[in-house]
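Researcher: Here's the sequence for the chain we discussed earlier.
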Amino acid sequence: MAGFAALGLRGRTFTSKTVGAAGARSLLDGRSMNPKTAELQQRTHNFFLRVIKLCETLPESPAGRSISGQLIDSAGGTDSNYRAACRARSTKEFIAKIGVAAEEADESKGWLQALLGANMASRAELQALIQEADELVSIFTASAKTAKQNAAARGSRINN
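Model: Thanks. This is the structure I predict for it:
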């Protein structure tokens, strides 16, 4: 762990529980993760895990299997694309990745609403997941808008 020693962190224990995988990478490459960023990474991951657990309760019907696969893919895409946005190498890349994360969260919301309409799972859990997907879409959309405004203020050319 030469990287930790170079940062004056030798002798300290860092695990995925204490800093998360991205946090450990940030420590190694000399960057610290914004607490709000870390919190949102955990939130998107928890959303993904909750969706997986929900899908495990869906009926073994053609519709249940199909929607389950689509929903797991979109919830996983929400999580992985937000994580990718956090590691973006440029503002343009951040805007693109956060936009994909918003699209995936919105797709998840659509599948969750379909499950709700078809009465295929717990109404309370579906409503909670729909609300979380909606909030994630709002957060990602606002982040993209702010990044575009900040780029414009710096004089960067970012295509809409």
